[in-house]
Amino acid sequence: MKKYNLLVTTLLALVLASCQPTQSEKEGYFSFDDGALKALYQATDKVDLALLNTKNKTIDSVVYFDNDKRIASVKGNGKFTLDLNGKKLGYQNIKATVYFEGDTVSTKTRVEVASSLVPKLLKYTIVNTYPHDINAFTEGFEFYNDTLMESTGSGSGGYLSYVAKIDYKTGKTYKKVLIDQKHFGEGITVLNNKLYELTWQSKIGFIYDAKTMKQLKTFNFDKNIEGWGMTNDGKNIYQSDGTEKIWTMNPETQKLTDYINVYTNDSKIKAVNELEWINGKIYGNIWTKDAIAVINPQTGAVEAVLDLTALKANIKNPKADVLNGIAYNKKTNTIFVTGKNWDKTFEIKVSE
After folding, report:
1. Where in the sequence of the chain do the CATH 2.120.10.30 domains occur?
2. What DSSP element (H or E) covers 3?
3. For residue 29, what is the enclosing H or E element?
4. Which class in CATH covers the domain with range 120-351?
5. Residue 43: which of 352, 298, 238, 259 has the closest Cα?
């Protein structure tokens, strides 16, 4: 009889266990009402979040998280309004942890946040036109005191990756340092008399003495990203990676400490390329577009756009590629722009 009772108890336990919902099934009890969410929000919007309770479970409370940071707790299945003001542009990953009937389960969604600013369209006038080496597949462009510094990538046609000092009036190179041609040279910037250079997909960078062009060290990227453009604000270095992100780098450690996402009021700006710091803003070439975005370095919002497509009509090299190269001359308050394999560099004055 004891064996029979034990068998019955065991069978009953197995039956009851088989009736218990799995974790996957419990996760299906609740979900965000994604149909009520917009495809794109702006930074001044508010988002009303509500959970669908498909099994009519008794909910004790819901805790909400935004990008893994706890932001609110509501009783029952009360609605929660997420204020996007001050949030980072880009995706906000929202998680709700639901406490119900002695159990807990989480569900997720996300919303995309764009800038609330409509970018201004800037104007420009050409001040001067100078020669540019058509063999230079330009990646970085920056003034160091009165010297124009340029870095290049290994473009098609056997073009070499190097960093160089350029006589901008003649377009001639008077100091050139080739990098190992297994690397594709990318953006540069000069800070505290050191020249920093990125590579495209090698995930390493170089640091030179800006005066002598002697290589001082190499460094490894601490994120799995590509190297594109580079600039600095006198304290921090900023670098783009071919996406909508611009990263902040500590120049002493070469570690990436934060990032912004670059957005207009209605879309992200993918493939931000060569960068330049001008009067507190980041000017960024947009890859494949002969245009420059003026970016707020704190928020990533595009505040203005400089359309330079008309400059291409002045380029005679039939193999010329896209606009890429922004160098600000503080003494003249003018901007020098060029492109990959362009035969000219243009000195321009920008206005609203």
Report:
1. 120-351
2. helix 2-19
3. none
4. mainly beta
5. 298
pTM for the whole thing? 0.90
User: What three-state secondary structure class fits 290?
Assistant: coil
Q: Which backbone phi and psi does 24 adopt, to 5 degrees?
A: -65, -40
Domain 22-114 top-level CATH class: mainly beta
Tell how strand 302-307 and strand 120-131 pair up.
parallel
| Gap between the Cα atoms of 270 and 302, Å rounded | 12
pLDDT at 6: 55
Contact at 8 Å (CB) between 49 and 94?
yes
Other C-beta atoms closer than 10 Å to the C-beta of 47 total: 19
Check: CB of residue 297 under 8 Å from CB of residue 233.
Answer: yes
The 10s digit of each residue's pLDDT in 54-93 is 999 999 999 999 999 999 999 999 889 999 999 999 999 9
pLDDT averaged over the chain?
93
By DSSP bridging, strand 344-351 and strand 334-339 are antiparallel
Question: Which residue has 């160089």 as its token pair?
Answer: 164
Task: Look up residue 125 and give its two tokens.
Answer: 């006038």
Q: Are 287 and 262 in contact (CB under 8 A)?
A: no
Within the chain, all domains assigned CATH 2.60.40.10 are found at 22-114
Using DSSP, state whether 152 is helix, strand or coil: strand
